[in-house]
């Protein structure tokens, strides 16, 4: 496995600075944020380290050469919108950008795009699956044409009142994965597997690795800390941030030895990226770099 990080935590850095940071700290790859250049609707979104709309042949050559010079690979192009939003104008914009990323990925010699399915948060799972099949079939067919894999992260995108009641990403559980993969069967449609989201949903994050081994295209290392005293007070029907918090790997409740052991069991040897969303390490740029250093040191005991 190659070890990297998702670049969104370095929101004020240029692409070259992100790659330089990865190389300096010992990382082998970067999941590069590729949002459209517009105002972000939430934290960790709206970051543009590769501007897809502004790509030219010379810029593509420059990006590839810079990565080669620094010996750092782009693990995936990252863009996590709600492509099923009920706002049809926003849906169209998100889908169009995702399609542009698929075409760009091939030119950049990047094999994977990491993203969300999205969800109409006030509709049922069954209703959303119908919309998903309509919206995503042409996206996956385009991915097949360009031979670019689409890896969907299993984050429910449900944190507080803005995402209540259903969250903004449909692909959250193995039960839904099976239905989605049956509706759009494709070797280019799979998962960006993040164990932390199962922790606060009180689900097994090890067992699904074995069932979906062929669908795991990319993996994340992000930790979650559940506060039992808060959970006892508000219950699982509360806003999730009322009883849990994202943490650096090793500072939460994920058993990383078991997780990486399972990845080795299934023969996963692809890209694995640390995702930093720990507010305790966001006070300054130096604290962000501390988070990258500490996370690297911790995960390196499992990933060589």
TrEMBL record:
Any Pfam family the entry gives: AP_endonuc_2
Keywords recorded for this protein, A-Z: Isomerase
Taxonomic lineage of the native organism: Bacteria, Bacillati, Bacillota, Clostridia, Lachnospirales
Record domain Xylose isomerase-like TIM barrel: where: 20-291
Keyword tRNA processing: no
UniProt protein name: Sugar phosphate isomerase/epimerase
GO MF term set: isomerase activity
Annotated InterPro entries: IolE/XylAMocC-like, Xyl_isomerase-like_sf, Xyl_isomerase-like_TIM-brl
């Amino acid at each position: 496995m190659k070890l990297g990080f998702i670049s969104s935590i370095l929101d004020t850095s240029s692409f070259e600075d992100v790659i330089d940071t990865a190389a300096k700290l010992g990382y082998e790859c970067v999941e590069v944020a590729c949002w459209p250049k517009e105002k972000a609707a939430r934290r960790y979104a709206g970051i543009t380290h590769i501007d897809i709309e502004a790509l030219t042949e010379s810029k593509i050559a420059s990006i590839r050469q810079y990565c080669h010079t620094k010996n750092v690979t782009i693990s995936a192009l990252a863009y996590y919108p709600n492509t099923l939003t009920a706002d049809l104008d926003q849906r169209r914009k998100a889908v169009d950008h995702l399609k542009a990323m698929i075409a760009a990925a091939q030119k950049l010699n990047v094999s994977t795009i990491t993203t969300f399915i999205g969800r109409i948060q006030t509709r049922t799972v069954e209703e959303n699956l119908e919309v998903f099949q309509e919206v995503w079939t042409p996206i996956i067919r385009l991915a097949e044409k360009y031979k670019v894999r689409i890896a969907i992260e299993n984050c429910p995108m449900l944190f507080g009142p803005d995402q209540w009641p259903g969250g903004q990403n449909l692909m959250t559980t193995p039960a839904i994965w099976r239905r989605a993969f049956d509706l759009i069967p494709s070797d280019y449609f799979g998962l960006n597997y993040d164990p932390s989201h199962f922790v606060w949903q009180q689900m097994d994050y090890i067992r699904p690795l074995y069932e979906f081994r062929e669908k795991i295209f990319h993996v994340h290392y992000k930790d979650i800390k559940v506060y039992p005293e808060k959970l006892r007070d508000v219950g699982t029907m509360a806003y999730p941030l009322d009883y849990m918090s994202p943490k650096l790997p090793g500072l939460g409740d994920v058993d990383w030895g078991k997780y990486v052991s399972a990845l080795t069991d299934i023969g996963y040897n692809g890209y694995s990226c640390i995702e930093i969303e720990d507010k305790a390490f966001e006070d300054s740029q130096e604290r962000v770099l501390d988070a990258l250093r500490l996370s690297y040191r911790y995960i390196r005991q499992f990933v060589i």
